[in-house]
Amino acid sequence: MTIKRRLTLCLVAALAAASPALSAEPQGIQTNGPFIDVWNNRGGNVLQMVQTRQQLASSGRQVRIRGYCRSACTILTTLPNACLGPKARIGFHAPRIPNTQIIPPYVDQIMGNYYRGGVRDRWFGGWNRSMEMQVISARDYIKLDPQTRICGSLQGGGTKARR
């Protein structure tokens, strides 16, 4: 195991041990019957989103990412139980200390560990250092990461997801 990977795991474990449990429905994440909807989520603290991601992955429910998903929210796109709404917009920018232009060490590496394919390539190719939001559509996201799915019918609780 690499030193960076061990550091990442230690940071996540420390956050999980030190933080109180996240509420069942953090801001921008709502329970909707058999689904969990991530709706217009601006992101936030990366380590807290890692913890939220773990909870969503173990929920056994489909996670539908709808509206916009920005910043730390983007690490949810690769959940095995996630799909993107057909009109979703995914936004990437450098992680930074709130209200500054300071990019904290290792946080971009933590985020990058959750991306795949062309998304990961673009992340480490410059999105991880960009102060401007790099926004792509759900369809463009899937072109970069074909393992990601577009959600089936979002009306009335359809469970089908398609590419």
- CATH C-level label: Alpha Beta
Quote the CATH topology: 2-enoyl-CoA Hydratase, Chain A, domain 1
Structural class: alpha/beta
Using DSSP, what is the number of strands?
A: 8
Tell me the strand percentage band: 15-25%
If classified by CATH, what would the architecture be? Alpha-Beta Complex
- Give the helix tally: 5
The first-to-last residue Cα distance is 33 Å
Based on the structure, what is the oligomeric state of the protein chains?
single chain
Q: What overall form do the CA principal axes indicate? A: globular
Summarize the structure.
This protein is of the alpha/beta class and 163 residues long.
3D structure, described in words:
- The chain has helices at 3-18, 46-57, 107-112, 117-124, 138-144, and strands spanning 29-32, 35-41, 62-70, 82-84, 89-92, 134-137, 150-151, 161-162.
- With 163 residues, it is of the alpha/beta class.
- It has a single domain (3-158), classed as Alpha-Beta Complex (2-enoyl-CoA Hydratase, Chain A, domain 1).
- Strands 1, 2, 3, 4, 5 and 6 form a six-stranded mixed sheet that branches. A two-stranded antiparallel ribbon has the order 7-8.
